[in-house]
Specification:
Layout: E1 27-29, E2 32-34, E3 37-46, E4 49-56
Antiparallel strand pairs: 1-2, 3-4
């Protein structure tokens, strides 16, 4: 059993979620995929952690995460 009064409604994030296709250009280091960050476009504090909107090097704006 669970007390329904303890539940809270989900809130939409400030950054809209985007469907991102897997990137085509990547480097494999120690059998792990690595991508290079070109710039951090935005940031915000969510609870006790920071969230960043990242723009990847050699990719268009549609790949920002």
């Amino acid at each position: 059993m669970f007390n329904k009064d303890l539940l809270t409604q989900c809130k939409e994030p400030h950054f809209k979620r985007r469907h991102v296709e897997p990137a085509l250009l990547l480097t494999i280091v120690n059998e792990e995929k690595e991508y290079e960050v070109k710039e951090i476009r935005k940031h915000r504090k969510q609870d006790r952690r920071m969230q960043y909107l990242v723009h990847w090097k050699d990719y268009g704006d549609e790949y920002d995460q």
